[in-house]
Amino acid sequence: MILLDLEPIKSDISISALSEEIGISRTTIYKYKDLAEYILDFERDYPSFDGEPITNGSGLTEYQSWVIQALISYRRKRGLTMDALKAYIKSAKNQVWVTKQSYREYQEKFANGHEAIRQQ
User: Fold this and answer.
1) pLDDT tens by residue, 12-60
2) pLDDT at 79 over 80
3) Could you tell me which residues are beta bridge partners of residue 48?
Protein backbone atom coordinates (compact mmCIF):
# COMPACT_ATOMS: atom_id res chain seq x y z
CA MET A 1 0.00 0.00 0.00
CA ILE A 2 1.14 3.51 -0.74
CA LEU A 3 1.07 5.68 2.36
CA LEU A 4 1.10 9.39 1.89
CA ASP A 5 1.77 11.80 4.72
CA LEU A 6 -1.49 13.78 4.61
CA GLU A 7 -3.20 15.69 7.38
CA PRO A 8 -6.92 14.95 7.60
CA ILE A 9 -9.31 17.61 6.28
CA LYS A 10 -12.77 18.12 7.76
CA SER A 11 -15.63 16.60 5.83
CA ASP A 12 -18.01 18.49 3.60
CA ILE A 13 -15.36 20.95 2.57
CA SER A 14 -15.92 23.03 -0.53
CA ILE A 15 -13.48 23.10 -3.43
CA SER A 16 -12.64 26.71 -2.54
CA ALA A 17 -11.97 25.85 1.10
CA LEU A 18 -9.83 22.83 0.15
CA SER A 19 -7.92 25.01 -2.30
CA GLU A 20 -7.21 27.54 0.43
CA GLU A 21 -6.40 24.85 3.02
CA ILE A 22 -3.71 23.15 0.92
CA GLY A 23 -2.55 26.17 -1.08
CA ILE A 24 -3.45 25.03 -4.58
CA SER A 25 -5.67 26.83 -7.07
CA ARG A 26 -9.31 25.87 -7.43
CA THR A 27 -8.68 25.12 -11.10
CA THR A 28 -6.05 22.56 -10.13
CA ILE A 29 -8.35 21.03 -7.49
CA TYR A 30 -11.07 20.67 -10.15
CA LYS A 31 -8.62 18.90 -12.48
CA TYR A 32 -7.79 16.38 -9.77
CA LYS A 33 -11.46 16.04 -8.83
CA ASP A 34 -12.26 15.17 -12.45
CA LEU A 35 -9.46 12.62 -12.42
CA ALA A 36 -10.63 11.19 -9.09
CA GLU A 37 -14.03 10.43 -10.55
CA TYR A 38 -12.43 7.42 -12.25
CA ILE A 39 -12.08 5.98 -8.75
CA LEU A 40 -15.23 4.04 -7.95
CA ASP A 41 -15.26 4.78 -4.22
CA PHE A 42 -14.83 8.51 -4.91
CA GLU A 43 -18.00 8.59 -6.99
CA ARG A 44 -19.87 6.39 -4.50
CA ASP A 45 -19.04 8.78 -1.65
CA TYR A 46 -21.27 11.54 -3.03
CA PRO A 47 -24.76 11.85 -1.58
CA SER A 48 -27.29 10.32 -3.96
CA PHE A 49 -30.86 10.75 -5.05
CA ASP A 50 -32.69 7.94 -6.81
CA GLY A 51 -29.43 6.04 -7.02
CA GLU A 52 -27.65 8.85 -8.88
CA PRO A 53 -24.77 10.75 -7.25
CA ILE A 54 -25.36 14.43 -6.57
CA THR A 55 -22.06 15.97 -7.64
CA ASN A 56 -23.08 19.59 -8.15
CA GLY A 57 -23.28 21.80 -5.11
CA SER A 58 -22.23 19.20 -2.59
CA GLY A 59 -19.01 19.62 -0.69
CA LEU A 60 -16.28 17.04 -0.70
CA THR A 61 -16.34 14.39 1.98
CA GLU A 62 -13.26 13.83 4.13
CA TYR A 63 -12.45 10.76 2.02
CA GLN A 64 -12.82 12.68 -1.25
CA SER A 65 -10.55 15.51 -0.12
CA TRP A 66 -8.01 12.88 1.00
CA VAL A 67 -8.14 11.25 -2.45
CA ILE A 68 -7.50 14.57 -4.18
CA GLN A 69 -4.55 15.26 -1.90
CA ALA A 70 -3.26 11.72 -2.40
CA LEU A 71 -3.37 12.10 -6.18
CA ILE A 72 -1.57 15.44 -6.00
CA SER A 73 1.10 14.01 -3.72
CA TYR A 74 1.50 10.82 -5.77
CA ARG A 75 1.89 12.76 -9.03
CA ARG A 76 4.45 15.13 -7.53
CA LYS A 77 6.51 12.38 -5.89
CA ARG A 78 6.60 10.37 -9.12
CA GLY A 79 7.08 13.36 -11.45
CA LEU A 80 4.13 12.25 -13.60
CA THR A 81 2.19 14.30 -16.10
CA MET A 82 -1.58 14.51 -15.60
CA ASP A 83 -2.05 12.25 -18.63
CA ALA A 84 0.27 9.63 -17.15
CA LEU A 85 -1.53 9.77 -13.80
CA LYS A 86 -4.89 9.51 -15.57
CA ALA A 87 -3.76 6.47 -17.54
CA TYR A 88 -2.48 4.89 -14.33
CA ILE A 89 -5.54 5.58 -12.19
CA LYS A 90 -8.08 4.51 -14.85
CA SER A 91 -7.08 0.90 -14.25
CA ALA A 92 -9.06 -0.46 -11.27
CA LYS A 93 -6.10 -2.56 -10.13
CA ASN A 94 -4.12 0.66 -9.64
CA GLN A 95 -6.78 2.20 -7.41
CA VAL A 96 -6.25 0.01 -4.35
CA TRP A 97 -4.27 2.70 -2.51
CA VAL A 98 -7.09 5.26 -2.85
CA THR A 99 -10.09 3.12 -1.97
CA LYS A 100 -12.39 3.93 0.90
CA GLN A 101 -10.96 0.90 2.73
CA SER A 102 -7.36 2.12 2.35
CA TYR A 103 -8.53 5.52 3.61
CA ARG A 104 -10.05 3.89 6.71
CA GLU A 105 -6.82 1.97 7.32
CA TYR A 106 -4.86 5.18 6.97
CA GLN A 107 -7.16 6.91 9.46
CA GLU A 108 -6.69 4.07 11.96
CA LYS A 109 -2.93 4.44 11.67
CA PHE A 110 -3.27 8.21 11.92
CA ALA A 111 -5.24 7.84 15.15
CA ASN A 112 -1.94 6.95 16.83
CA GLY A 113 -0.31 10.13 15.58
CA HIS A 114 1.40 11.23 12.42
CA GLU A 115 4.79 10.01 13.62
CA ALA A 116 3.48 6.45 13.80
CA ILE A 117 2.77 6.56 10.06
CA ARG A 118 6.12 8.08 9.15
CA GLN A 119 8.00 5.34 11.02
CA GLN A 120 6.53 2.50 8.95
Assistant:
1) 788 888 888 888 999 999 999 999 988 988 888 877 666 666 666 668 8
2) yes
3) 53
Question: Which segment, 3-7, 79-83, 108-112, is predicted with the most confidence on average?
Answer: 79-83
Beta bridge partners of 13: 60
Reduce the DSSP state of residue 51 to 3 states and report it. coil
**Are the C-beta atoms of 12 and 61 separated by less than 8 Å?**
yes
Domain boundaries, the chain: 15-118
Whether the Cβ atoms of residue 95 and residue 39 lie closer than 8 Å to each other = yes
**Element containing residue 49 per DSSP (H, E):** strand 48-49
Residues in the chain: 120
- Three-state SS across 59-118? CECHHHHHHHHHHHHHHHHHCCCHHHHHHHHHCHHHHHHHCHHHHHHHHHHHCCCHHHHH
Rounded Cα distance, 66 and 7, in Å? 8
